[in-house]
Design brief:
With 325 residues, the protein is α+β, with helices and mostly antiparallel strands. It folds into three domains: 87 residues, Rossmann fold; 128 residues, D-amino Acid Aminotransferase, Chain A, domain 1; 69 residues, 2-Layer Sandwich (Dna Ligase, domain 1). Helix content is 42%, strand content 21%. The strands form three sheets. Strands 8, 9, 10, 11, 12 and 13 form a six-stranded antiparallel sheet that branches. A four-stranded antiparallel sheet has the order 4-7-5-6. β8 and β9 form a beta hairpin. The chain is globular and about 60 Å long. The chain starts with 7 loop residues before the first strand and ends with a helix.
């Protein structure tokens, strides 16, 4: 299809996750971009009437702008496939791999991508073996400082940087608020960057890395979505060989996880210029303060045109899959 054959696009936004408001903002931005290029867009919540509505209205393509479990754990995508509807973004199995942060780290590590040493700790183990004994063992194994985060989730919710032993118990409680499994990761000091990987049909390419510099040093939920609390530099202030290596690692992680269309790979570049994989996001934020739109525009692309191109690509991929069955 072309812009002279307007698409009927269904944008899914909102949901019941902790990232609902971010999702609504991303959905509005995608909608504005698609409408600006002449396409028809309907925005709706993922509720109990969604699957019936899909059968009745038959949109050309669905754009899931749902952050959190409802849009990123693969379940919704599997249902969209079952309903026979094309959609933008990762397929169910790949989304599931990326959503589970410890699993994603294992997959990319096996592909030769460096990722910080970590331990995955379910709440049940923490309780069964005793908090003091567990934390004492982990302090000796991982050292300090640490990053404690939920094993699932996004937008830095439930994430704590632990500089001292006395802060660790509270960090565990914070992580368990958002997930029954916590990931404790050795903190790598360096420059935090986000690398957008875009596949518009010619294979995945890394866009200019965005360097993230929060005013208070921590890229928290507030620093991500409140204008003025974080400075972004794009291209990131990296030596060209380091920037090239970061791009290669981002694409390698994208490929190892089997992602498609669009992803954001979060890395930290240490003082020796080594990029370390932190996590992958199959549905990165597309708000006015998000790094992905900044990377797209820095690469010289029009945001709306990219969103249209991905919608068209999703339809082509769906048609090819039907022919191969």
């Amino acid at each position: 299809m072309t812009e002279f054959e307007p698409l009927n696009v269904l944008v899914l936004a909102g949901g019941i996750s902790h990232e609902r408001e971010v999702s609504l903002r991303s959905g509005r931005r995608v909608t504005d971009g698609l409408i600006a290029h002449g396409h028809t867009v309907t925005v709706r919540e993922p509720d109990a009437s969604l699957l019936d509505a899909l059968r009745e209205t038959r949109p050309d393509v669905v754009w899931p702008a749902l952050h959190g479990a409802s849009g990123e754990n693969g379940a919704l995508r599997a249902l969209l496939e079952a309903a026979g509807v094309p959609y933008v973004g990762a397929q169910p199995d790949a989304a599931r791999l990326a959503w589970l942060k410890p699993v994603a780290k294992t997959v990319v590590a096996r592909a030769g991508v460096p990722t910080p040493q970590s331990v995955t700790l379910p709440r049940e183990t923490f309780r069964e073996l005793g908090a003091n004994a567990v934390l004492g063992t982990l302090r000796g194994y991982l050292g300090a400082p640490l990053v404690v985060k939920p094993a699932q989730g996004g937008s830095a919710q439930g994430v704590t940087i632990v500089d001292s032993d006395e802060d660790l118990p509270r960090a565990m409680v914070n992580a368990y608020t958002y997930s029954d499994v916590a990931l404790l990761e050795r903190k790598v000091d360096g420059v935090e960057i986000a690398v957008t990987v875009l596949d518009a049909g010619d294979g995945p390419q890394a866009l200019p890395a965005v360097e993230i510099a929060p005013n208070d040093g921590v890229y928290s939920f507030e620093a991500r979505y409140n204008a003025g609390e974080t400075r972004f530099y794009t291209p990131a202030r990296l030596d060209p060989p380091v920037a090239q290596r970061a791009a290669e690692i981002a694409v390698a992680a994208h490929n190892a996880l089997g992602l498609r269309h669009l992803s954001r790979i979060d890395l930290i570049v240490d003082h020796d210029g080594i990029p370390w994989f932190l996590e992958a996001n199959v549905l990165p934020g597309l708000t006015e303060t998000s790094s992905v739109p900044l990377a797209i525009e820095t690469a010289g692309f029009d945001l709306g045109a990219v969103y249209v191109g991905l919608a068209e690509l999703a339809i082509r991929d769906f048609d090819v899959a039907l022919l191969e069955r």
